[in-house]
Specification:
Layout (H helix, E strand, L loop, with lengths): L5 E2 L11 E2 L1 H10 L1 H11 L6 H13 L7 E2 L14 H17 L24 E5 L4 H11 L3 H11 L5 H10 L5 H9 L18 E5 L2 H25 L20 H6 L12 H4 L18 H12 L6 E4 L13 E8 L2 E7 L3 E8 L7 E6 L10 E7 L2 E6 L5 E6 L8 E3 L1 E2 L2 E2 L2 E2 L12 E7 L2 E6 L7 E5 L6 E2 L3 H7 L14 E13 L6 E11 L6 E7 L7 E7 L12 E7 L5 E7 L3 E8 L3 E4 L2 E6 L5 E7 L4 E3 L3
Parallel strand pairs: 6-10, 20-22
Antiparallel strand pairs: 1-26, 2-3, 4-5, 7-8, 8-9, 9-10, 11-12, 12-17, 13-14, 13-18, 15-16, 18-19, 19-20, 20-21, 22-23, 23-24, 24-25, 26-27, 27-30, 28-29, 28-31, 31-32
Helix pairs in contact: 1-4, 2-3, 2-4, 6-7, 6-8
């Protein structure tokens, strides 16, 4: 199925378009970040200079998130893999609007807009950054773009990079506040359509070269900064003298307060260390029976630093916490799972019964230490089979549970390609490519396959300490995605896992809930629902996806958060799309789970069908609402 042939599930028309929340916009921004930054870089005026254009493009893109729930402009994405994503439409509009504002001349009697000022973040001191140089054609195109106005550059880039027709370009620029769109369209028409050059490294602000700034001027500025710093230290010392000025920290206890619980939690000699064979006689297979492994389990100084940083991380410690996880210190002595050198860092893994804490510091010091937390309460079996030890470039290493007999790497997009064995050394895997680092193009999705005495299971890295367990089947009777049939079920929907990265996901289930014969003898389409459950219980995310014959990936037809649909409490789902046949006709297609007795549409399309699928002929852009009735008489609404 070509992406331009599928639009989102019909919804009631509105003046402002679908509502977008912060999480939805953030997911679109993270997934399409390189394209959005390239879009900003091309629309910004070349007169800013390549270094400032790069930094400004990143700053504008990172500021494109809404402050709360807001409405997205009704401007469809075209054949770029983002059809039906209002989150992407919103952040793209914000990027274009602020990039155009950055090119406006400063007004004498008005405050400048934020986009017109040099970006506060990101900043790179002592270096100038700029994209890699292209050829003569790219240079000529850049010079030609510099002769256009900002709106005309936006027209050219939206036509070439986003593949938008002029009607959608007009709508987007109007929403961005451009006063004379016709003039911008006419100016852009004067340039030759060298659109493939827009994908060149010449215009890629995410792949950069670095050169030093003016070294003599920097030395002069450094001397001035040292003088100012010395004066500040003197003033600070005077303010800290008894009397007026900075006083004690109120009721706060001093560092590492002298009480039994605090001392026990910070004493490396009291760390719990489980014997190597304890898991074999335990009634539960969870993190509490993992033995302490690694060559540095006896390094008391390292363990002391890890515990102290856990209790009171300093201001320079990088701390990351999965949603819904408490980041405070342990209530008592935690359990030691691992301490050793991993790649270029010393790593300590600790467990306090509810959380996994990972402390890492460079081999040559403690500067740049990191502390990561993940919630793992009630984790058993597959959910307690692996913990991320370290990441390097796009690779990840895991520490495996003692009961894991074999580990392997498998591409979820290629169910028939087989698995590649991963050697285990003291429970540590060889590095494998992680999908968590993928930004836009989803050409593979590597997962970890673990085998123990009970069979095989699949775990996917979603950018957190503990990988998510993958399952398939009807809610309430799911099973691990390990057999050939389960692998074929997951393959078309693997890339949708990117929508739930870094969300504290525990398990993700894929369920093909319907198969629908398409009009005009176009074959049979598949309907699937993927549901991501979290460790904290809330924040569940559900996607309904639609796939036509001959296509490798499903298209998101509807999405929702914190709903019972497609889950064990409510194993039902209803979703729909607008679909264009090869003959050029448009249809409303809808499908429900097998217990759906009838489906009807209201609004711009009026149709009804008996059974769990519906197909009604309509027109392009039609708006409709879906309602369903289950066999027990209960009404069901469409997802989303």
């Amino acid at each position: 199925m070509q992406s331009q042939d599928v639009a989102p599930r019909p919804t009631p028309s509105s003046a402002t378009g679908p509502v977008v929340d912060v999480e939805q916009a953030e997911a679109a921004l993270v997934e399409h970040y390189p394209r959005l930054v390239r879009l900003a870089y091309l629309v910004l005026p070349p007169g800013l200079g390549r270094n400032r254009r790069v930094l400004t493009a990143h700053a504008l893109t990172q500021r494109a998130l809404p402050r709360g729930r807001t409405s997205a402009a009704v401007i469809p994405a075209q054949s770029t893999g983002r059809a039906g994503d209002p989150g992407y439409a919103f952040v793209r509009l914000q990027v274009v609007r602020t990039a155009l504002e950055a090119g406006l001349p400063l007004a004498r009697r008005a405050w400048p807009k934020r986009a017109q000022l040099p970006p506060l973040l990101p900043q790179v001191w002592g270096l100038r950054l700029f994209p890699r140089s292209g050829g003569a054609e790219e240079l000529a195109l850049d010079q030609q773009l510099s002769t256009l106005s900002g709106p005309a550059r936006a027209v050219y880039v939206l036509r070439g990079l986003e593949k938008l027709p002029d009607g959608d370009v007009r709508d987007l620029l109007t929403a961005a506040g451009v006063a004379d769109v016709d003039e911008a369209l006419d100016q852009a028409d004067d340039l030759p359509a060298e659109y493939p050059l827009l994908e060149s490294p010449e215009f890629d602000p995410c792949s950069l070269q670095a050169r030093p700034t003016d070294l003599m001027r920097r030395r002069q500025h450094l001397r001035a900064a040292l003088v100012a710093g010395a004066a500040l230290v003197v003033c600070g010392a005077l303010l800290g003298l008894p009397g007026e000025g900075w006083g004690p920290d109120g009721a706060a206890a001093p560092s590492y307060a002298k009480n039994p619980a605090a001392e026990a939690a910070l004493d490396p000699g009291r760390l719990l260390k489980v014997p190597p064979a304890a898991w074999q006689s335990a009634s539960r297979r969870d993190f509490s029976v993992w033995p302490a492994r690694g060559e540095l389990t006896g390094d008391r100084a390292l363990l002391r630093r890890a515990l102290a940083v856990w209790a009171r991380p300093g201001p320079k410690v990088r701390v990351s916490v999965t949603p819904g996880t408490f980041s405070g210190g342990p209530a008592g002595p935690p359990q030691l799972l691992y301490a050793s050198t991993v790649d270029n860092a010393r790593v300590v893994i600790l467990y306090d019964g509810l959380r996994i804490a990972r402390y890492a510091e460079p081999k040559d010091g403690t500067a740049g230490a990191a502390l990561d937390f993940a919630r793992v309460d009630n984790a058993t079996g597959a959910e307690a089979s692996a913990v991320v030890l370290g990441r390097a470039d796009i690779n990840v290493r895991y520490l495996m549970a003692p009961w894991v007999e074999k580990a392997a790497e498998r591409d979820l997009l290629k169910p028939g390609s087989g698995a590649m064995a991963l050697p285990l050394t003291d429970g540590v895997t060889a590095p494998l490519a992680s999908p968590a680092a993928q930004q836009s193009n989803c050409t593979s999705w590597n997962v970890l396959e673990v085998t123990d005495g009970d069979g095989s299971r699949l775990l996917s890295d979603l950018g957190e300490l503990v990988p998510a367990r993958l399952t398939t089947g009807r809610p309430g009777s799911v099973k691990d995605a390990s057999g050939a049939e389960e692998l074929r079920t997951w393959a078309p929907y693997a890339c949708s896992l990117s929508a739930v990265r870094t969300q504290g996901v525990r398990t993700v289930n894929a369920w093909e809930f319907a198969h629908q014969p398409l009009p005009e003898a176009s074959g049979t389409a598949d309907w699937a629902c993927t549901r991501a459950e979290t460790w904290r219980g809330g924040g569940t995310r559900v996607l309904a996806q639609f796939r036509t014959p001959g296509t490798s990936h499903g298209a998101v037809a509807a999405k929702a958060e914190n709903v019972a649909a497609c889950g064990p409490r409510d194993p039902h789902v209803l979703a729909g799309v607008l679909w264009k046949s090869q003959g050029g006709s448009w249809y409303v297609l809808a499908a429900g789970s097998r217990d759906t007795e009838s489906i009807r549409t209201t609004g711009g399309v009026s149709a009804q069908s008996e059974g769990s699928v519906l197909a009604a002929k309509t027109r392009q852009g039609a708006q409709a609402q879906l309602k369903g009735t289950l066999k027990d008489g209960r009404a069901i609404n469409a997802l989303g």
